[in-house]
Design a protein that fits this description.
387 residues; alpha/beta; eight-stranded parallel β-barrel; 15% strand
Amino acid sequence: CSLARAECVQALKAHLFPLATLVTPNTIEASALLEGFPVNSLPCMEEAARRLHALGPTAVLVKGGHLATEGEPWAVDVLYDGDRIVHVRRPKVQTENTHGTGCTLASAIAASLARGCGIEEAVNEGKDFITELLARSKEISLGSGPQRPMQHALMTVDCDFDPKIQPSKVRNLKPEDLRCYVVTDPGCNERSGRSMLEAVSLAIEGGATIVQLREKNIGGGDFVKIAKLVKAITASKGIPLLINDRVDVALAADADGVHIGQSDISTADVRALIGPNKILGVSAGNTEEAIRAQMDGADYLGSGAAYPTGTKADASTIGLEGIRRVCESVHIPVVSIGGVDASNAAETIAVGCAGAAVVSCVFAAKDPIQATRELLKNVDDALAARG
């Protein structure tokens, strides 16, 4: 619309915008639609999205690729649905083959909407597609001039994208599974006089929605034996079981998935090892780690530490604002970790988390059943209040 006559722009706004599910202007087009309003920064993109939404579409995506300077690692778009602003971040692909990316992105989003996806999910699927396509074809020379046409991967480049970049729909994880996320601790069990099986059973009885089995000081064979016994308990209750760090143990015990940290095997390699159907969780302490994990196949993130914690001595505290930024940077669910208990879990839900991951809050409690019930109630109340 930056090339259209004024009367054409007015017709678009008056007649087409009220019918649109989503409009996707770049910053130059957004400025033209708003009669010269400068769209030259992230706050201006947010304001432009609000103003364009007032014209009638269900949602607005202001694309920020034109603002990313050379060397800038991220391209940030702004999505607004009349309720909240979402920053859609993806790695910036340095290439001149960009002509046609806007139309291709809009087509990809439309295809996801036609499949029944919600707007935010469709936008994220489209962004994943376009980012991978640009990355795969960035070196291909097509035509000449300052802006060469985008390579649509037909005939000259393999477009059988890896399963790792596909959405996690095929896997056995629902956001509600993450509400009350308990992480086992052998030390808590020893001090409380409980076996691992007793501790897990009590947590599940109290309402735990997912269990992560964490064992740092035993051999792989013993870990597998314990994991199989715990899996028998969780499976009988329909509760997913994840293994902390050990991909080999997760596979040997046929656990539902694995959770890894930043210093473990890379997310992409773990996804390749466990396949497309098992759950993969990744710890992320900032937006860069979060976005990369999402791109490489994570189903959910654990973000923190939310508060100072004694469970992991090497965990740095990022606080509620750090967790908020992580939640806003990705479309996969996030659980808060680090120093979280029944008294503060609701605060982490308020900034965007789907659930709270706890250790001593449950497993060091005198009554793990009651402790888990209290945590789950507070999380569910906070989710309901957030809407």
